[in-house]
What does this fold into?
Amino acid sequence: MSNQPPSSSLDETNGHAKKRQSRSFWVRVLRIVVVLASLVLLCLGAGLAVFTGYVLLASEKTPQAADAIVVVTGGAGRLERAVELLNEGLGKKLLISGVHPGYSNKTLQHRYKLTSEQIKCCVELDSQALNTVANATQTSLWAHNNDYKSLIIVTSAYHMPRTMLEMYRAAPDLHYQGHIVTKSDGRSLLARLFDLNNFQLLSKEYGKLLASLIYVTTERLEKTKAASAISK
It folds into this structure.
């Protein structure tokens, strides 16, 4: 009489072993996914913390004189500060990028106390730019058409990193100085840090900045690859 187990028992044993191996494989995969996801979230959180600290601790510093001044509209105090820089003689001309199509020279003259002579000689309105990428594109065209080599870029602290990224992408041959506009509301640093509206604004802008970084990096890699292919 044979001592070997029935073939059905062997098949069942092998089946259980394969199931255990398969389960063990997927457990390892799940662990790797969890670890990678945790690392990504940790990096994103650390980046947001650095970005938030940069914005909350930003301060205004008087820039050096440049060929012209560009203000990107959309935030409180930006245009007022740009006009002040123009009046201080830190730029020959001022480009107001992203103004509403209905915005007129009379509005400028009345609201910001600019003379008609100043507006005619030194202020230009850009109503075509509808976003930061377009702001940079229009600024590049304006600067090159006027043979400007150096620009002072005026915008809010939270908007400055993405604005400068797009400016360098549109016209890397120009020299830029970022001038941050800060509007103090009298609240402490902690109060601003834990303000829900402020957190939502910074989180949204941080997401846009990451998207721009990914796009710019991808674009540069494609250009490098294309240049390498041509050289071969």
About this structure: The mean pLDDT is 87. The CA atoms of residues 10 and 69 lie 82 Å apart. Residues 7-57 form the longest helix (51 residues). The two ends are 76 Å apart (CA to CA).
